[in-house]
Specification:
GO terms for molecular function: heme binding; iron ion binding; monooxygenase activity; oxidoreductase activity, acting on paired donors, with incorporation or reduction of molecular oxygen. The protein is α+β, with helices and mostly antiparallel strands and about 450 residues long. Helices cover about 50% and strands about 10% of the residues.
């Protein structure tokens, strides 16, 4: 239960207040460590103040549920998100609101129906097999680089209907430049996009290159009459093009949905796969349990049940959620934990803070897949675990991502054993996602 305050006039606790800099130094030194310890130090609701930016953090599962589900009408998507990502994602599902979002979701949703997912699963297994051909016995590989290449090939095949995206490097560079721009530890305040810093210039070049990629894909698909390179299976791209021909979606909306799915459909999954492989490499006992499970079936299919593999993925997503913060803005004044939160207040919901809170998890900093028993899941508050968000705007690709993680991980470990090396470290970067701050090397044994 959220601790109730008795005086409505109480001031919301604020992380270290320094003249001019506010909370910038405390947060900037180690944002993830700050998120881990702040709930115990400041309580379930506290304010963070950085030059040009102030927001209130909710770090209690009940409050997360209030914002995302129970009282979601009191909160809206953060307008600042449009300022930061609007030029890139436009009216895609991550940034769109109201009727535009509802219409977009209506046209995107069929690409993620259960029957379609099973078809995608076969492609996921095939693409993983292709990636494994690059891995040589005894060699060291950067699993983040490999995972990014793999998940990009999967989204290209399943969502865009092409066997490969020739412009893969442009897409990967764009994702890297986009997430790099949002690293808060570089300076204690945000730098507007119009300031011609090296990071901003790289971001602009990357978004231009990404637009070129999308235009090339759409041009090829229109010239082929919408047919795909990968069988005759309909995909997201063809569905959006059909909606465009009927007048239901504009060319700009089609572009925005495709850019959103291209980036969100591979970046966060690559991060999750990287951390899961890295954790298993560093925890041999857990790795062997997964190895035994994935190598037992005579054949691996999208329908194969892999409970321990699923628990390892769930635990990796708890410890290292690729999306580690969600932002909303109060649409009306709300009262939470006894504090009055005025209309127009920016609110932060941090997966990192909640997932690593010892109120919900024993030994929360330990990688323990076995914790996810049916009894534990039954007793855990629903929003003490929300790697994909929740409520009406829960990630539309959640089931796709979980299936992809399960099949890629299982296919990899059926073929090779991943071992840690002294340099195997999982150190996330506090950027737009919690991607690794550098290569994640492991050794491959066949």
């Amino acid at each position: 239960m959220v601790e109730k305050r008795t005086h409505m006039s109480e001031t919301i606790p604020t992380a270290d207040r320094l003249p001019l800099l506010g909370s910038a130094l405390e947060v900037g030194r180690d944002p993830f460590r700050f998120l881990e310890r702040a709930p115990a130090e400041y309580g379930p609701v506290f304010r963070v103040s950085i030059p040009g930016l102030s927001f209130v953090c909710y770090t209690d599962a009940e409050l997360v549920e209030r914002v995302l589900a129970a009282e979601s009408d009191r909160y809206r998507k953060d307008p600042r998100e449009l300022d930061l990502l609007g030029d890139l994602l436009g009216e895609g599902l991550l940034t769109a609101r109201g009727e535009i979002w509802e219409r977009g979701r209506e046209h995107v949703q069929p690409a993620f129906y259960p029957g379609r997912l099973l078809e995608y699963g076969e492609e996921m297994l095939d693409r993983t097999g292709d990636e494994l051909e690059r891995w040589e016995d005894g060699h060291r590989i950067d699993v983040h680089e490999a995972a990014t290449r793999l998940t990009l090939s999967i989204v290209a095949t399943t969502m865009f209907g092409v066997e490969d995206v020739e412009e893969t490097d442009a897409i990967a560079d764009a994702a890297d430049a986009i997430t790099s721009r949002f690293e808060p530890s570089r300076v204690p305040m945000e730098i507007p996009l119009w300031v011609p810093t090296p990071a901003n210039r790289r971001y602009r070049r990357a978004t231009d290159d990404l637009d070129d990629v999308i235009e090339a894909i759409l041009r090829r698909r229109r010239e082929s009459g919408g047919e795909t390179d990968a069988d005759d299976r309909p995909d997201l791209c063809s569905a959006l093009l059909t909606a465009g021909e009927s007048g239901a979606l504009s060319d700009a909306e089609i572009r925005d949905h495709l850019v959103t799915m291209l980036l969100a459909g591979h970046e966060t999954t690559a991060i999750a796969l990287t951390y899961t492989l890295g954790l298993l490499a560093s925890h041999p006992d857990e790795r062997e349990r997964v190895l035994e499970e994935v190598r037992a079936p005579a054949e691996l299919t999208p329908r194969t049940e892999l409970p321990h593999t699923d628990r390892a993925i769930r635990e990796a997503l708890r410890l290292y959620p690729p999306t580690y913060m969600l932002y909303r803005e109060t649409a009306t004044t709300d009262t939470v934990a006894g504090y009055e939160i005025s209309e127009g207040t920016r609110v932060c919901l941090s997966q990192w803070a909640v997932h690593r809170n010892d109120r919900y998890y024993d030994d929360p900093l330990e990688f323990r897949p076995g914790r996810w028993t049916p009894e534990m899941r039954e007793s855990l508050p629903e929003y003490a675990y929300f790697p994909f968000g929740g409520g009406p705007r829960q990630c539309i690709g959640r089931r796709f991502a979980l299936l992809e993680l399960r099949l890629c991980l299982a296919r990899i470990l059926r073929s090779v054993r991943i071992e840690s090396v002294p340099e195997t470290e999982l150190t996330p970067t506090p950027a737009l996602t919690s991607r690794p701050d550098g290569p994640v090397p492991v050794r491959v044994r066949r």
